[in-house]
Amino acid sequence: xxxxxxxxxxxxxxxxxxxxxxxxxxxxxxxxxxxxxxxxxxxxxxxxxxxxxxxxxxxxxxxxxxxxxxxxxxxxxxxxxxxxxxxxxxxxxxxxxxxxxxxxxxxxxxxxxxxxxxxxxxxxxxxxxxxxxxxxxxxxxxxxxxxxxxxxxxxxxxxxxxxxxxxxxxxxxxxxxxxxxxxxxxxxxxxxxxxxxxxxxxxxxxxxxxxxxxxxxx
Length: 218
Description:
Blueprint: H1 4-13, H2 17-29, H3 33-37, E1 44-45, E2 50-63, E3 70-72, E4 87-100, H4 103-115, H5 128-141, E5 148-150, E6 157-159, H6 164-176, H7 180-190, H8 195-199, H9 206-216
Antiparallel strand pairs: 1-2, 2-3, 2-4, 5-6
Helix pairs in contact: 1-2, 1-5, 2-4, 2-6, 6-7
């Protein structure tokens, strides 16, 4: 995962205040990229340092034309009547959560908002693809373009991207507070609907495992 030192190097490699804010905000807030680009200024309480995060998730499901039951989108045959489902329905689930943000990141956000010419009502008026491009560009400049990271949620390997800051926050959080209260706090902060998703982060970072391995043979 990305270490705090590597994240600092990414921030330093960013081209401007906006890009530095994007990287710092993604790490300190631990939010999804979609949540960052949809965050409205009215949902930031500059005084208390609390932010209302809106998460909108699409839930595509197939509907069986024979019995009318909804089934998973990857299901080939309806488990209720055996007919092949054909119609795909997309439902949207909207959730909100309130998170805290550190003062330095808030001040950086305020400087960026006050210094820009246009006001769209959004903190970062960019697309998800543009944000990911900014992160990857900073990674190349910082010499981290080839770094391979493990996603604890899926077990898959990835290069540096915008979502990896969320993983970095989760692992750093659990290094400091790995007890049940800390994990429940992380669940709320990241906006995981199921606690089992948060539990996937409950594994030691590779660097820590290496330290323990060395201790075993000392």
